[in-house]
Structures are given as structure tokens and as C-alpha cells.
Design goal:
The protein is α+β, with helices and mostly antiparallel strands and 129 residues long. The chain has 3 helices and 3 strands; from the N terminus they run βαββαα. A 3-stranded antiparallel β-sheet has the order 1-2-3, covered by helices on one side. It starts with 11 loop residues before the first strand and ends in an 8-residue tail after the last helix.
Length: 129
């Protein structure tokens, strides 16, 4: 995985806002939410993941770096590579399940077909012709 993009601190405008939403009175009264604006690109990120202002600052910087890198590099960015890896793993799991349960379904179909063949061979009185 390529290293995360480093952003110049002079290019970031930081604001601390009062939180909103679920989390109770403590979230609503304190300025623990962080909003970062990357001045050259105009990208704005707002983070209110935790009640800690310092943790929110760190998370917001990571989100901002990811968004800027995604905008600059497109499909070669760190986020895009992570998403591609996730998609590949999910496809592999789906493929494995199809192989595993597809065989079981085929076996069930074969058993049902054999039962029908045996039933067709027997006459109405239950004897084999």
C-alpha cells in the first residue's frame, strides 16, 4: 500500500464546531467537531467521530488526505486500491460459495432425478415392469 499523502499545514484552514446529532448533551455543548478546508482544492471535511477534539483532528486530516489523493490520482489512489482489494475478496468469497453450494445443488438435482426415474419404471401397482 502506498503511503498516505502529506498535506502542508499552511494549506489547511481548521475550525472547531459544536457537534450535533446523537451523543447527548456533552456533544452538543462542546466544540469537539472539526472542520478542515484544503484551500488550494476547496475540499471540506467535517469529522465528529469521537468526543475527543484531538482524535477528531487526526481522523479529519486522514480523511482530507484521502480525498485529495483520490482527486489527484483517481484510480491509482490509496483509497481506490483498498476498494479494489475489497471487491476482489468479495468476488472470491462469492465464487467459492458458488463452487461449494453449486455442487451440493447439483447432487440434490441428481438424487431427485434418480427417484423420478425409479418411480417411472415402477408400475401403478408398485412392481417393476
Amino acid at each position: 500500500m502506498p503511503p498516505r499523502l502529506v498535506i502542508n499545514e499552511a494549506d489547511i484552514e481548521e475550525a472547531f464546531l459544536k457537534g450535533s446529532g446523537p451523543g447527548g448533551q456533552k456533544i452538543n455543548k462542546t466544540a469537539c467537531a472539526v472542520q478542515l478546508k484544503h484551500i488550494p482544492s476547496g475540499i471540506v471535511v467535517r469529522c465528529q467521530a469521537t468526543r475527543s477534539q484531538q482524535q477528531n483532528r487526526k481522523i479529519a486530516r486522514q480523511l482530507l488526505a484521502d480525498k485529495i489523493e483520490e482527486k489527484e490520482k483517481g484510480p491509482d489512489s490509496r483509497v481506490a486500491l483498498k476498494q479494489q482489494i475489497k471487491r476482489n475478496k468479495k468476488a472470491d468469497r462469492r465464487k467459492k460459495a458458488k463452487r461449494k453450494y453449486g455442487k451440493l445443488a447439483d447432487q440434490e438435482v441428481d438424487k431427485a432425478a434418480k427417484k423420478n426415474d425409479v418411480a417411472d419404471l415402477k408400475g401403478e401397482d408398485g412392481t417393476v415392469d
